[in-house]
Amino acid sequence: MSSSLKRCTSYTKYEIRKRNPEPKSCALLVIDVQNHFSSMATPILHNLNTTISLCRRASIPVIFTRHCHKSPSDAGMLEEWWSGDLIVDGTAEAELLEALDRKSSDLVVEKSTYSAFRSTGLEEKLVEMGVKEVIVTGVMTNLCCETTSREAFVRGFRVFFSADATATSDVELHEAALKNLAYGFAYLVDCQRLQHALSGAK
């Protein structure tokens, strides 16, 4: 079992706000579950697919993001930070995991920085769909997932963040992100909570 899948307890003292998603105004964001991140994503794949299934049953739209670069010139500061480890579009590393529960009709948003909102049209699409809340899952907890959640909050979306369908390279980073998000940006959820919250939703 991945260290980021172990039951986290250090964030619970910051989790003083609890709420359930409203299916009629919610969307699920599945962040960057790509071959490049397979070592982190594979251990949480069951929880990811369970979350996707729960949302589909509640008629919550599922939106995937795919991080990629056409060239280093579009990477901005990521080129400086992750030089030599950029995800190049058109390579196998850039593709979403085949085992991911994705339908051909699902929206896939391409992005080139940590936030799924920057220069992607995601906000406009969510507004068009009548979405006011987002559930965030995927990788990496402390980078693209956390940055997307913070920006969603700042843009006026209510944020729900999955503690067991997100992962990163280190359990300490995973828990640190959960602490920050619970403190100021997001309601934390997991598969069990979502199953309870969405049971009977249509």
From TrEMBL:
What domain of life?
Eukaryota
The signal peptide, as residue positions, is none
**Residue intervals of the Isochorismatase-like domain:** 26-190
Q: Does the keyword GTP-binding apply?
A: no
Offer one example of a GO biological process linked to this entry. Answer: NAD+ metabolic process
Has UniProt tagged this entry with the keyword Hydrolase?
yes
Q: Tell me which UniProt keywords the record has, alphabetically.
A: Hydrolase
User: Which terms does the record give in the GO molecular function aspect?
Assistant: nicotinamidase activity
Q: Its family?
A: Belongs to the isochorismatase family.
Name of this chain's protein = Isochorismatase-like domain-containing protein
Q: Which organism is it from?
A: Glycine max
Question: Taxonomically, what lineage is the organism?
Answer: Eukaryota, Viridiplantae, Streptophyta, Embryophyta, Tracheophyta
